[in-house]
Amino acid sequence: MSGSPIGSTPRVWARRWVFLALLVVAALVAFLPSVSSDRSLLVVSIGDSVTYDADPGLRAALEATGSVVVDTRSIGGVGLLRPGIDNYLADALSDDPAVVVVMLGGWDLGEIVADPAAYAVRLDEVANRLTADGAHVVWLAMPPTPPGEGIEEARQTANGLFGELADRRSDVDYVATGPLLGDEAGAFTRFRTGVMGLDVQVRKVRDGRDDGHLCPGGAALLGRAVLDLVVDRFDVSEPSGEWWAGEWTTDARYDDPPGACAAMVTSSG
What we know:
Rossmann fold, 269 residues, two-stranded antiparallel ribbon, single chain, globular
């Protein structure tokens, strides 16, 4: 009787259940990554060389939440009136980000000062493009610049236009960077209090002089500011771990030029 159909039924059904279980497992393996991907918030950053220095801190802060993916697209020479900007924006938006972080303006200062009204029109054109598919824009102001550069008045004009853009649009948030990277008055400083409440170098030194580009301490402060907005608006979790002190702080960009971010902290102002 052991070779009869009746006697073999338990083994047949057992094999069938095993086969069905394997199919379910395989389906879950194929399905779960897509679920994870759907739950990830894509953030894209665009901007010039100062933003390029900010990008590692921005990524570290946001990706430490476990639910955000950051695509950094910042490069030197980016401006809204510069050649090739339309292709640059199209490429940055190609993966349909939920959030676009913008920090630029330095390469447009001449045109901004010459005709602020025309630049305001250009800002609306760009904002329309960035938000056309539902993305939210976080517009970071141009950070305070070293006095020796002589562009503070122009920077203030540019930041005024960026702030006005956010005032007239619900899909744009404006973040003033003077309080984040500057001294108590919002002016340029090489050192200030960092994310963890300790004095850190936030801006580079070039040929012994203050430079407008960022050190890890400054990048972390900008990352924290964007993180706060994203956590509040998109209900993502707070980050885990000491993201501000990760391997990203040793990126080669923070040693360009050599020793740029190696100044000794002597004060917070």
